[in-house]
Amino acid sequence: MNDLTCIIIGGGYVGLAALKAIKEKTKGMANGRRIRFVLIDKEPGHLRKFRLFRPTTVEEEIMIPWKDLVLDGFEFVQGTVTTVDSGEKLLRYTDAQGNDAQIHYDLLVVAVGSSVRRPEPYQGGIALIDPQAAADIRNRWRANLRKAAHETNPEERKRLTSIAIVGAGISGIETSAELALAMKKEATALGLNSSDTSVYLLNSQERLLPEVSEKFRRKLVQELSKCGVTVLNNRKVLREEAGVVLFSNGDSLPVGICIWMIGLIPNPALPAMGLPLTSDGRVLVDGSYRVKGAPSVYSIGDCARIVDPKTGEEDQMTCFEGSFQALRLAKIVMADLEGRPAPIHQSSKPNMDNAFNIGLGQEGVFWIRKWGLDMVMTGKLPGKIKKFVEDKTSMLR
């Protein structure tokens, strides 16, 4: 009998989790047929998006070659998917050399994730969207500090030693802490007063992370302040112009660099694939992650709209939810292959309001609310736990 071909589109955290879970659940076999696993991604390796802030301060490689992952037993195809023909079960893509190609599938998992939202060109600044942008940011703030070391005008020196981060989600928070700590160290080495460096975290909402407890929020702001980060709430940024951030209320803030980190959008490559999408561009799936109107096609992670059928609760675009989806998907795929009723999606947080583990340099702040208890932990342990989880999720050797 011919092999079954299972293709996973997307080698991010959720795509890797799906590949691992399906391989382990099926043991590479279904109804007496061997399953051939193929991973397709436009990048030559796994991009550790959780670590995107790191190259803003140090030269750290966050693109991991596929051979350095603990996963094995799969083929890798570097290419950009252009069309999914669910009728013919054909996947069309453009390979790394720019040639058109296609591959047949029996099972298809769409896990292409999300992309960083970009500001409009007129808004200035630089968006932290990829490792190259991170390296550009690192080079720019270091150059600014070197200029500041010889600047005699106090106002210009203050501007050169200041950074604004627009967007106060978890990525913005972690990036602000990383930059603040690195700038202090570099300033001292250049003979500047480390306390004169400033990193402003600009939050358009009334308070930081509205979904967390007030206890956690106070502790987080306190720890950010220790790092050298100033949180400014209720600050809607219009644009950065000639080294000045302009706010909607008429205020302004002179800075050496303005970094945009304003959230995520579903992968912009999705519309071209021909799959049914929601109004905001995510893949439409049923309660078992099956893409509507596309037999044997599944989708999970940031690129799909996942809803708990019982509660109507929608999963957030986080790796936490995606990891649980991957485990359930493996059971669903096995059930579908064997003709059995498949599991239905359930919220991954049935017994807790929320949980966060935010890295602040080598340290961190951990919070969980469960069974009515509000627990907060700070220090090196949360930072170590976060790094361990990130390494595990990236499946590093």
From TrEMBL:
<keyword id="KW-0560">Oxidoreductase</keyword>
<protein>
    <recommendedName>
        <fullName>NADH:ubiquinone reductase (non-electrogenic)</fullName>
        <ecNumber>1.6.5.9</ecNumber>
    </recommendedName>
</protein>
<keyword id="KW-0274">FAD</keyword>
<keyword id="KW-0520">NAD</keyword>
<dbReference type="InterPro" id="IPR036188">
    <property type="entry name" value="FAD/NAD-bd_sf"/>
</dbReference>
<keyword id="KW-0285">Flavoprotein</keyword>
<dbReference type="InterPro" id="IPR023753">
    <property type="entry name" value="FAD/NAD-binding_dom"/>
</dbReference>
<dbReference type="GO" id="GO:0050136">
    <property type="term" value="F:NADH dehydrogenase (quinone) (non-electrogenic) activity"/>
</dbReference>
<feature type="domain" description="FAD/NAD(P)-binding">
    <location>
        <begin position="6"/>
        <end position="305"/>
    </location>
</feature>
<dbReference type="Pfam" id="PF07992">
    <property type="entry name" value="Pyr_redox_2"/>
</dbReference>
<comment type="similarity">
    <text>Belongs to the NADH dehydrogenase family.</text>
</comment>
<dbReference type="InterPro" id="IPR045024">
    <property type="entry name" value="NDH-2"/>
</dbReference>
